């Protein structure tokens, strides 16, 4: 039975089918993932990592025209979610994409892989 603030469904079958969609496991985790993507600078950073895997914070900051502290903060958020991974190379820490779902999402929005011409 609906409460006074909830409307009664016009079609209880449709309403029940729609409500069943909300039982998908991990829906809150997906909302968190989309929240991370809602920031244009984080999305730009992910695109840079897609095109230039194993890039340093300094090089990312230069490419993005952002401060190294802003890039580092965004990378911390993305690392916390498991989207990027870091690897130490002497004194330099290099970053790369680590989440295949994010990788595929970047392809879905038109990102391709760049090939260096060394």
Short description:
This protein is mainly alpha-helical and 118 residues long. 53% of the residues lie in helices and 12% in strands. β2 (84-89) and β3 form a beta hairpin.
Average pLDDT, all residues? 88
What name does CATH use for the topology of the domain at 30-100?
Arc Repressor Mutant, subunit A
Q: Roughly how many Å apart are the termini? A: 68 Å
The H/E string reads HHHEHHEEH
- Number of H- or I-type helical stretches: 6
CATH homologous superfamily title of the domain at 30-100: Winged helix-like DNA-binding domain superfamily/Winged helix DNA-binding domain
Q: Pairing-aware structural class of the strands and helices?
A: mainly alpha
What is the correct CATH architecture of the domain at 30-100? Orthogonal Bundle
CATH first level of the domain at 30-100: which class? Mainly Alpha
Give the radius of gyration.
20 Å
Indicate the overall shape: elongated
Strand order of the largest sheet: 1-3-2
Number of strands: 3
């Amino acid at each position: 039975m609906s409460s006074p603030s909830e409307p009664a469904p016009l079609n209880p079958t449709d309403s029940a089918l729609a409500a069943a969609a909300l039982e998908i496991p991990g829906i809150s985790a997906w909302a968190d993932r989309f929240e991370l993507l809602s920031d244009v600078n984080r999305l730009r950073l992910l695109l840079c990592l897609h095109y230039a895997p194993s890039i340093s914070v300094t090089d990312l900051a230069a490419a993005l025209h952002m401060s190294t502290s802003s890039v580092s903060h965004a990378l911390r958020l993305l690392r916390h979610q498991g989207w990027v991974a870091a690897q130490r190379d002497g004194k330099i820490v290099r970053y790369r994409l680590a989440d295949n779902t994010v990788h595929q999402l970047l392809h879905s929005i038109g990102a391709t892989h760049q090939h260096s011409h060394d």
